[in-house]
Amino acid sequence: MGDFQKMEDTPPQDSIAYPSLLMWQWYFLAWCAGLWGVRYVTPALVLLASIIFFYIFSRHLNQKASQRCRPHKPLQSGTRLGAFFIFFALGLHVGSTALMEPPFDINAPDSLPKVVQDKQKVLVTGVVREVITSPDRRIKFILTDAQYSHNGVVHPITGDIVWTWANRKDAWNKQQKAIKLSRTSLQQADVPKKTSETIMRLRPMVGEKISLKAKLSPVVGFRNQSLWNSKEYWQNRRVFWRMWTWGDKAIPMRTGEVSLAHRTRESIRFTVSRQLEELVHTDFGKKLASTLGVTPVRDAIRFIPALVFGDKYDIPSRRYMQLSRASLSHSFALSGMHLAIVAISISLLLSICIRRATIYEVISKPKLLALGIIPAAAIYVWIGGGSPSLIRAFLMLCCWCVLVMFNRPRVFMDGLFWALAIMTIVNPLVVFDLRLQLSALAIVALIVAHPIFSAIRAKIFPEQTSRAQRIKRAAFDIFCMSLAIQLVLFPVTIWNFNELSLWNILNIVWLPLLGAFIMPLLLVGLGVACLSMLLPALTPAAETIFITAATPISALFAFLDDMDKAGFLAPVILQRPNWLEIIAWYGCLLSGLIWWLIEGKNIVPAIYNSVNEGAPTWENKLFTAAGLPLIGDDIEQKSAQHTCIRSTLNLKKNTDTKTSHHSPANILSRWASRFALGSFILLLCVPQVLRTQFPEQRTQLDVLDVGQGQAILLTFPNGKRMLIDGGGFASHSFDVGRAIIMPSITRQHDDSLQWVLATHPDTDHIRGLFYPIAHADVKGYFATDAVPHGWNKKKLHEALTQANLTKKLLAAGDVLTISGNLEMEVLHPPKATLLEGNNKSLVLRLVKHDGAHRKGLALLTGDIELEGIEELLHSKADLSADVLILPHHGSGSSYSPDFYDAVNPEIAIASCGFMNKYRFPSKKVMKTLHSKGIRTRTTAQDGEVKLYLE
Question: What does each C-alpha distance from 127 to 208, 260, 270 come to in angstroms?
Fold first, then answer.
């Protein structure tokens, strides 16, 4: 970037400097692209092409600018280009080697152990490798070196297990049962009685060997196209099996040695948790609750372990979602920002304590601070549990400190690359970790945006400032940096979370409060709590500090509750991009930034002058602009080359500005920047233009994988769409509508739904509809006169009220007109039917007609069973269709050969969960369909089923 600025002959004080990319950093990008290709080959190849494109651009322009000093060497350039492919192939090979394949085949359930197929409880034993806490009182333990025993025979388990323990009671007076159950095994391990009881009051820790009886199941996940897949997430971590237990129903037997570090951290966490339990009942806590409300205060106290230990166990998921919509959730997840607060606090402390000038004669102040920061940061990473984002930040901090010790300037980008390089070498599949992706991109955004906003701030705010001006400058910095981070994270955030927050402005107040008041107080409280383990008299002091730190958090939650009630925190649902649009987005940002530095700063004054003068002299500049190569010049330039460039620049300063502006190097750089920016803008727009100008002429039917349930999305040639059922689970903590249905609706499409239909009000069909109805652009909701009960009834009413919709009843004989030649016929139930439950499900037939002939494209049958099927057959309605969605997930209760003959489909689809407890679809149903020559597919085996109806 520096060479481009020099070519434009900008004054030094007006230029914006960026760190250069070293040659090894270019190769590292190719290595990462290769790792990415382990799962996404085509996107990885396009990414590699983009990297090479930017590299060639920068090399070519730099050589043009300095060809008098350094002649072009085709052989050397060819070798370097070949190295890109070598590092890409190396990353692909290393990543493929690191990616373990599951020890079973989803499409061949017989490859699973017999006890897994029969869903039998077995005694599973394994060593805890990692402990992960989740909101709504869930803890995940990853067990390695696992085995299970059945009928006295021990069987090894290939791969690791994730054991989810839900709603575990952490208070020590609830763990006496566990202590009694495990005391014998601990005594056999020669663990002292006092030590064993202390350990048993804590959670299972890393290094412990645990045994418990549970059902062992394979990790399969929801397999929908372009959606997050938990199977891939766990496979990246070598986890292929899962177990689930609830409460105290499966207390594990615990043996084995626990390291002093893990036991100490867990003891500290447990001590702090006990002290936090009493805060609501203190006098100050009661006064605070009476002012702000009990719920905000209680939730604020629950968030303290998240800020100190990264422990999300007691956090309600609804509160975490609220923070996400307020653009504040990042401040409650341990990351580099919190580590930076620790580093700044230690720096200030050292600066205050060490004032002797003689020390700085031996070692400079920056080096002394670097030596003091690393131990404190290491302790914080240990306390925080060592999440990938914390480790990344710590590695980067260590790299920065090492570079400072060696007097290296411009260390921020180098520190990021070194940290990522170390992490990908140790664990190549870490590139797929979303937390690492978000934190690394946020650092890149800060590095790139800081010089720009600093230059803008210097022009807006005077150098001689008052306290008010300093506050304004700080607020400006926080807002701009937050905006830059959101801009850089935009496509990744939309792809993964499907929502955009518009409340970045809240960070202006919240982040300074968190960094300057809350986090320092929590760190002090943590220190006092540790001392209280030795001196119990200090416990009240620790509680006072914690409740003081919780006060602003409580105020924040009370404020967010008011915003939520007023409707200000409603999610902004956006169309999810595909991989090509994501790559093009970042290409536009990079090339656009460089174009701005090359030519944009000259165009804006020209636009201003042209508008004032009334002459359109700026139009060519504005509409022919196109980007430049990646930030930074090539690091391989020799010092002699820099000397030659400086001599050239000095010569330029003595020549006419107009002549310099029209030099060949400047003309080349300007047109190169325009070409690059234009190319990426075109690449960004091409997918949307193709979808708009060349729409699909066939009806698309998507049977989504929602586990044991059903959800069908129909997209018609005229762009209108219909959602029939939404799946759902008994658990309130997992919202199928938010996690699966809405992301599927917005896959390269807006959130419009002309029709939402519920075939019947069972949980596995209706619960996933609540979120789309409330937050998507739904035109109408249709169902039978059957109504849901309990929680489902309440949530459906809330969703319809929020969407300002009323239920429209459907019965046999009704027709929904989709377009001139497409209709959705309602075949069942009749208005006066006496049927109830599943037999009252809507039966729908999608029909294509030309006025004289009617052809059935698909028959959708809900959960209709044999009694309803017989009534449907007696109605003499035309049931023929090319595609049959099997009734009741392919259950034997809906088995009817006469019905299959009446429909006579080419393919039959069963929507059901993998290894569901009902054993859907029925073997009898599938055998009969096969005997009739009807092809079958199931979401249990194939995941999402997508068909195009002619």
Answer: 6, 16, 21
